[in-house]
Amino acid sequence: MMAEVAVFETVAAMRAAVAGWHAAGEAVALVPTMGALHDGHVALVAEARKHARRVIVSIFVNPTQFAPHEDFKKYPRTFEGDRARLEAIGADAIFFPSVEEMYPAGFATRVLLLGPAAVGLEDRFRPTHFEGVATICCKLFTQSRADFAVFGEKDYQQLQVVTRMARDLDLGITIVPLATIREADGLAMSSRNRYLAPEERALAPALHQAMQALAARIRNGEPLAVAVSETQMQVIGAGFELDYLEARHAWTLAPVTALADGPIRILVAARIGATRLIDNIAV
Ligand code: AMP
């Protein structure tokens, strides 16, 4: 019979379970999410299982990483479906705290980020986003005392920021990356894809196709700046509103000017109507 997935709403309950697992010599992996789970999240849980006997999935739509004009209120919340899905794939526990549990009255701390959090990509368009992400991840890591945390490359800058923070602050957790899971047509899976109207959904895969073509051009030695700016124009011409489409160093996210400056990562953020899509690929 399928084991029931435990649901912890408090830090104390999660910690008690983790203490028991650690006492039994079992490693623990955490998969932080905002819920509205899709196959990308399921793949993170499968990856977590490779590293640890016990897997906790946190589901928390974190208010501090949304700007006032962003979609915090309407972000999809589908807890019952998420719970059933996690039970079916054998996750051990869900951490499902309230906003009050995570941010009690008087909460007044943020993690200050430098390096990959300040390179003019997501941070340029969402200036307070990463301090919210880093603060909640720091809390989740220390609350859970997990040994591993699994993050998707889908949010590539976030992955670099969190990896850097875990090292810099000696958080005692190993960050495990996982490649982006895509729909059959190449669109990166995202909880926000459900916002796309049918004609917008039909356009969306053109973003990944443009990035693949750009990666091939760069690999073939075409002048990088020309290839990037032609791709930007092509994406805008296809009907996207472009926040950025850039080639960066894969680890530092610093600007690059030639293939030899690599390894190179292409990162993009583009809007179709009201929906903002982000994606990235290796060159
Ligand atoms: P979210 O619930 O969107 O905040 O994402 C939670 C985690 O899932 C993050 O580590 C994301 O990078 C990861 N993730 C989201 N979409 C995908 C995807 N298509 N493939 C792999 N990981 C993903």
Mind explaining what this structure looks like?
By secondary structure, this protein is of the alpha/beta class. It folds into two domains: 6-178, HUPs (Rossmann fold), CATH 3.40.50; 191-282, Pantoate-beta-alanine ligase, C-terminal domain (Pantoate--beta-alanine Ligase, Chain: A,domain 2), CATH 3.30.1300.10. Helices cover 39% and strands 19% of the residues. It has ten helices and nine strands. It has a six-stranded parallel beta sheet, with helices on both faces. It has a three-stranded antiparallel beta sheet with strand order 7-8-9, covered by helices on one side. Helix 6 packs across helix 7 and helix 9 (205-219) packs antiparallel against helix 10. The longest helix is centred in the middle third of the chain and has 16 residues, at 129-144. The chain binds adenosine monophosphate. Residues 33-34, 40-41, 43-44, 151-152, 154-155, 178, 180-181, 188-191 line the site of adenosine monophosphate.
List keywords for this structure.
single chain; alpha/beta; Rossmann fold; Pantoate--beta-alanine Ligase, Chain: A,domain 2; three-stranded antiparallel beta sheet; 9 strands; binds adenosine monophosphate
SSE order and pairing:
Elements: E1 6-8, H1 11-23, E2 28-33, H2 39-51, E3 54-59, H3 79-88, E4 93-95, H4 99-102, H5 122-125, H6 129-144, E5 148-152, H7 156-168, E6 174-178, H8 198-203, H9 205-219, H10 224-238, E7 241-249, E8 264-272, E9 275-282
Parallel strand pairs: 1-4, 2-3, 2-5, 3-4, 5-6
Antiparallel strand pairs: 7-8, 8-9
The structure holds adenosine monophosphate (AMP).
Residues 33-34, 40-41, 43-44, 151-152, 154-155, 178, 180-181, 188-191 line the site of adenosine monophosphate.
